[in-house]
Amino acid sequence: MPRKYSVVCGDSLAAEVDELAREYGLSEQEVLRQLLEHGLETVDGQPGAPKYGD
Q1: pTM passes above 0.85
Q2: Interior/surface letters 3-32, b for 16+ CB within 10 angstroms, e for the rest
Q3: CA–CA separation, 27 and 36 (whole Å)
Q4: pLDDT value at position 26?
Q5: Alpha helices, DSSP H only, in the chain?
Q6: What angle do CA 30, 22, 37 make, to 5 degrees?
Q7: Does pLDDT of 54 surpass 60?
Q8: What is the pLDDT of residues 28-45, one digit of tens each?
Q9: CA 42, 50, 37 angle in degrees (round to 5)?
Q10: In the structure, how many helices (H) and strands (E) does the chain have?
């Protein structure tokens, strides 16, 4: 089942999210979902990376 999260960020980060959304024709929510997914994939398995689900 999908879960909802709330993100609070500064104006400059919000502007970057808005810019990406416009550039790729996505919603801000989809941009954030993809950024989170990519970030988790990037740190997964790297030394010192947090172990999710432990």
Answers
A1: no
A2: eeeeeeeeeeeeeebeebbeeeeeeeeebb
A3: 14
A4: 98
A5: 11-24, 28-43
A6: 25
A7: no
A8: 999 999 999 998 888 876
A9: 35
A10: 2, 0
